[in-house]
Amino acid sequence: MRNVLELLERAAERMPEKRAVGDQDSSFRFLELQQAAKALAGGIGNAGKNQPIGVLADRKIRTVARILGVLYSGNYYVPLDPDLPAEKLRAILEETDMQLLLGPAEAEQSARAAGFQGVYISTLPFGPSLRDLPDVGGDDPLCMVYTSGSTGKPKGIVKSHGAYLDWLEAYCETFHLTENEIIGNQTPFFFDASSKDLYLMLYLGATLEIIPSKNFLFPMDLVDDLNRRQISYLCWVPSALSIVAQLNPFSLVKPRFLRRVFFVGEVMPMKALNTWRRALPELEYVNLYGQSELAGVCCYHVVRGEYEDTACLPIGRPFSNTQVFLLDEQETLIREANRTGELWIASRALALGYFKEPERTARCFLQRDFGAGPVRCFRTGDLAHYNEHGELVFSARADDQIKHMGHRIEPGEIETAANGLEGVVQSACLYDEKKQRIVLFAEAKRSGSEIRRALKEKLSDYMVPGKVILLDKLPLSANGKLDRQSLRRRL
Length: 491
What we know:
The protein is α/β, with parallel strands linked by helices. The protein has helices at 5-14, 30-44, 61-72, 86-96, 108-113, 161-175, 194-204, 219-228, 238-247, 270-279, 358-364, 411-419, 448-456, 484-488; strands spanning 19-22, 27-29, 52-56, 76-80, 100-102, 119-121, 141-147, 155-160, 182-185, 207-210, 233-236, 260-263, 284-289, 299-302, 317-318, 322-327, 341-347, 353-354, 365-369, 374-386, 392-397, 402-404, 407-409, 424-432, 437-444, 467-470. Strands 2-1-10-9-11-12-13-14-15 form a 9-stranded mixed sheet.
């Protein structure tokens, strides 16, 4: 296949009347989705080829049609949060010089307030339906996702059609996924993680069900919704799964059709995962690891056996389309267990690079020869080590590593110990540079002094937080992840 649109063409031909995507109000069958996307592409008209087109992405099926409509027009989409602050939206619009935005009618005023002067399309469908696929190949851009990165300045990551097709093949072969999957989407479409759900739906000819965000506040309603829509597959961020585990509705109602629970984007708290596994032991649980600079993910670990609440779950091994290298500070390969290094990824699913940032692209996407010829690699900035089974275990972001009292400390180790304590629901460890102390934020049913005393029995003295700040709830970002930038402002 040359591009992902051929996946929709195949599905629309094979199963035109099958439900492709649904939200709480409506749905598209595969043929309807194809027709809506092509009609929208006809309305986009002569926008050019391989140009960025913005999609203000709400949690509705119309967003899926808009994304595919952009692709049918021969361009690539930039998914954006409809509630993005005007200043951030203005910066993205200026950087990309977008002349076309697609989104719900209620979001147009915000776009205009951010300075958008181009054409805004809210109608779906829009123009005469296209007949032919655009002349787009594997090396052409499919999307550009914006992530804040460690600096807080948005960076645009451009990914290709070929990268997604390559990842999909490896992923579906590994887990033996079929068209019978019903995928429960948790992550908003303006976040990169949601693309995994969207393109799995197209690749498999499966059904994608968009779960309302409000359901995560009421786990009983959430499980009822999973049952009503017969959802079999979840790939959520750990914070979302932890919310369900904390309120633990499974003694009253269980997801009857669920078969797979995958998680990605954060470290999964073992205590929360154990709650799921005790209540639903027959399910397949998989820890996934990846970077925004990839289409999809690059490593996986199928959870088997027993884990203590204080255990750290491996990220496992690479998929068949990927090589992962662990390098020390001299860029020498690490092969032995329990020695920390930086992860480098070589994969056909790597992104094309950073938008209008050739120097940054050259700095992060590198050609290296590790003994079998030169390969294109991405330097992740993530620290990891091998365990005694040869599995990779994530340690920390290199730029999050704490240097305290002459020691290098991985905050994830402190968080794992804290999360395993009785009465601690969730924690986040940060370093206060000004006061030179480790600070632990915790959602807990015990005092800060009790937490510090308990941690003294589990951690070296230099790793024990100097201060514990209790919060009713740890803040979450719009995609359901722990919002560490918000916590940093509390230091």
